[in-house]
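Protein in question reproduced for absentees:

***
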Amino acid sequence: MLRNEGDRLSRVIVCTPRQEYFHVSNPKAHNIAEIADPDKAKQQHDELKPALANFAEVIDLPELAGHPNSVFTRDTALCTPDGYIKLRLGLDTRLGEEEWMAQALESLGEPRVGEITAPGTVEGGDVVLAGTVAFIGRSTRTNEEGVRQLADLLRALDYEVRTLSLPDRYLHLDKVMMVAGPERIICFPELFPAGFFKGFESIEIPERGSNTANVICLDKDEIIAHAANSEVIGILEGKGVTVHTINLSEFAKGMGGPNCLIMPLERK
């Protein structure tokens, strides 16, 4: 069951980069800024998996052939307390990853409770579940029709839906907000209207440089962060959050952060 991304992580899907992530003939088409160093990327991912395993069962899927972005498992589906929602990715070169993940989830016994259909697009990085509230970002990857379909599905699962249109400079919602516990939000305050986080405590971070809210919540006040996110790490530690730092530079080259690398299945 996964209702609040601030609860303790107990089961998660990752995808270790072994071949596809490094064999990219057209990086721009895949939204990859720079081809990652294979040895460094594998080493970094091999540091992430045991950090997750201290809290959760880690399921490692093989990469999808021809899909370098399949290492970023987060975007392909959304797990809820009742089952998973099959998403529809907003980058053409990623289409097909949804079915790959759907097959994996169903093999693990996860029922499907909904699906985003064309012309709608939703990527998992644009959705944050926080107890009774579902935050959805409207972005270059998650369009208006996708937001409408997902909002209807989540309201039927008893979520209150709060939506935000993101500036184009941000790929996903999880770049600008994420949870650090069941009732704690990390965010760039300038981007959100008054009352958007009603019912939650906000940990505000400055919108500058390479700062990002993209972290993995392991448990209440315990997260994984990219080591380069140093200013944000300092702020979080000052608020009593335990931060496990991992150098994820080779995934930043693929425009991804820690949260992009996991598909959370269950939290307790």
Observations:
- The CA atoms of residues 3 and 131 lie 5 Å apart.
- The chain has one domain: 9-267.
- The helical segments are 38-53, 97-107, 144-156, 230-238, 249-252.
- The mean pLDDT is 98.
